[in-house]
Design goal:
The chain is an alpha/beta fold and about 350 residues long. About 40% of the residues lie in helices and about 20% in strands. It folds into 3 domains: about 70 residues, 434 Repressor (Amino-terminal Domain) (Orthogonal Bundle); about 130 residues, Rossmann fold (3-Layer(aba) Sandwich); about 130 residues, Rossmann fold, CATH 3.40.50.2300. The strands form 4 sheets. It has a 6-stranded parallel β-sheet, with helices on both faces. It has a 4-stranded parallel β-sheet with strand order 9-8-10-11, with helices on both faces. A two-stranded antiparallel sheet has the order 1-2. The longest helix has 16 residues.
Length: about 350
């Protein structure tokens, strides 16, 4: 996937080769070679690019010429691991469907968190003059924006940068925590425990805030002793079981579905039934877990498909980006049989 032609020696010459010789960015080479209108580039930089083009014998191929005319129908998506993550791969699915709906094709690069591979992927997409790039992570977190992303329109998906330097779409963690707690309140529970993660993250703070606000709105006092920190995995939920039972809680909101799975195991070892003795609510809607526990797990879904679709809409200017902060995507409840 490289905008290149054969040089004088018969080897493939890319824009990156020209950029390296000229001491400029790939984007600058693209603008000069394609005579992009309205772009300010100094005469010295232009001269160095032209000299490098002659030295290397670089000739843009037909694809590059087509793209330089502003007819690119490509959108890039650079991801750290979501293509190999069971449920977060829905981000790609949502972005792909939305792109196709508007006449664009998605170019996907999965980098496995490798910085060199990430920079290479972004450079290749810039060579192809993509309409813009979606940059996504497999879990919601703050990132440092790769410098090359500032060379094209970029939307962050399931992540955000300090200072709101780029538009972003992320899950509404607080709303999700509030919704999970409201489901338990609606089932008649008032003494509701919350197993929260020990990992600092927007999910940790947002879901706790939602839990608190739902309790307060229902007139149920927030009791800090009912919040139990645990590793965000099956072992964490299992380890928290005894403390949960000692708290006399009748319902438990779990930070994620893996924690809920561990809690299921712990409750069964104590001879307790779900939901008759203790109701359980998860978070994530990781289908391989939630839909296959017995009883099936009520949970709140992370809106991965909609995150991808919304990212494309922001990139294409079909929806306005919020003036401050990321665009929040709602986390819907998935009602099954554990409450």
């Amino acid at each position: 996937m490289s905008t290149s032609e054969h040089g004088r020696n018969g080897s493939s010459v890319t824009m990156r080769d020209v950029a390296k010789i000229a001491g400029v960015s790939v984007a600058t080479v693209s603008h000069v070679v394609n005579d992009k209108a309205g772009v300010r580039i100094g005469e010295d930089a232009r001269r160095r690019v032209h000299e490098a083009v002659i030295e290397l014998g670089y000739r843009p191929n037909a694809l590059a010429k087509t793209l330089s005319q502003g007819t690119s129908r490509f959108i890039g998506l650079v991801a750290d691991a979501i293509a190999t993550t069971p449920f977060a791969g829905q981000i790609i699915h949502g972005a792909q469907d939305e792109a196709w709906k508007h006449g664009y094709v998605l170019l996907v690069a999965n980098t496995d968190g490798n910085e060199a591979a990430e920079n290479e992927a972004i450079a290749m997409m810039l060579e192809h003059q993509v309409h813009g790039i979606l940059y996504s992570t497999w879990f919601h977190r703050e990132i440092q924006v790769p410098e090359a992303l500032h060379q094209t329109d970029t939307v962050l998906v399931d992540c955000f940068a300090a200072g709101n330097v780029l538009p972003a779409v992320v899950p509404d963690e607080e709303q999700g925590g509030r919704t999970a707690t409201e489901e338990l309140l609606a089932a008649g529970h008032r003494r509701i425990a919350f197993i929260n993660t020990t990992t600092p993250s927007p999910a940790q703070t947002g879901r706790l805030a939602g839990y608190r606000s739902a309790l307060e709105a229902a007139g149920a006092d927030f009791d800090e002793s009912l919040v139990f920190p645990a590793a965000p995995e099956q072992e964490g939920g299992y380890a928290a079981t005894s403390a949960i039972l000692e708290s006399k809680a009748t319902a438990v909101f779990c930070h994620n579905d893996r924690v809920a799975m561990g809690l299921y195991d712990g409750l069964r070892e104590h001879g307790l039934r779900i939901p008759e003795d203790v109701a359980v609510m998860g978070f994530d809607n990781q289908d391989v877990i939630a839909a296959h526990l017995r009883p099936t797990l009520s949970t709140v879904a992370l809106p991965h498909y909609e995150l991808g679709a919304a990212g494309v809409r922001l990139l294409l200017g079909l929806e306005p980006a919020p003036e401050s902060g990321p665009q929040l995507i709602a986390c819907p409840p998935i009602r099954r049989h554990s409450i």
